[in-house]
Amino acid sequence: MAIDIGSLEISNADEPVDVQIRHPSTWQPLGITFHVIRRDTKAGKRAMLQAVRENQKEEGESDDDYGARIETILSAYMVSGWTTDEEDNCVPRNGERLEFSRENALSLLSDPGYFWMAQQVNSVVQSHDIFFGKPTKS
Predict the structure, then answer these.
(1) How many CB atoms are closer than 10 A to CB 57?
(2) Which of 6, 11, 99, 104 fits as disulfide partner to 133, beta carbons 3.0 to 4.6 Å?
(3) Residues whose CB falls within 8 Å of the CB of residue 133, separated by 6 or more in sequence, listed in order
């Protein structure tokens, strides 16, 4: 029996989702939580539009290179904040203390050494599953 699609409700779709960043090999939590919005929310659509407006394709840049670059930029624009186990809520990186800013989010997510972090964020940015409530059968 098919499910009545009218009964599918999106729960808290506009609320950021907490993404607990995990070690890429052990999957242990790192004490860093990114607050992420999805692309198909109002806030997500605004952030995507802003990201594209502020990051146009560069002269001579291939479509593939631009696609890869803008994908990372879009993920960074979807990060609305972060918290950490540190008192100051800064992300420690190579002796630095990174406060949340779009620039710092982009710096982390575009660094090839942290591709695994970008993958964790991007999986939520694109996800629909976590926002649907339980459907009722008709």
Answers:
(1) 14
(2) 11
(3) 8, 9, 10, 11
The SS3 of residue 6 is helix
In this predicted model, what pLDDT tens digit does every residue of 70-109 receive, in sequence order?
A: 888 888 999 999 999 999 999 999 999 999 999 999 999 9
Give the amino acid at 136.
T
- Residue 35 contacts residue 14 (beta carbons within 8 Å): no
- Token couple for 130: 């976590």
Helix pair 63-77, 42-54: axis angle to 10 deg: 130
Q: Among residues of the chain, what percentage have pLDDT more than 90?
A: 53
Q: Is 16 in contact with 37 (CB distance < 8 Å)?
A: yes
Question: CA 82, CA 18: separation in Å to the nearest integer?
Answer: 9
**DSSP string for residues in 49-75:** HHHHHHSPPPTT--HHHHHHHHHHHHH
Cα–Cα distance between 91 and 10 in angstroms, integer?
32
The sign of the dihedral angle between the CA atoms of 84, 76, 27, 111 is negative
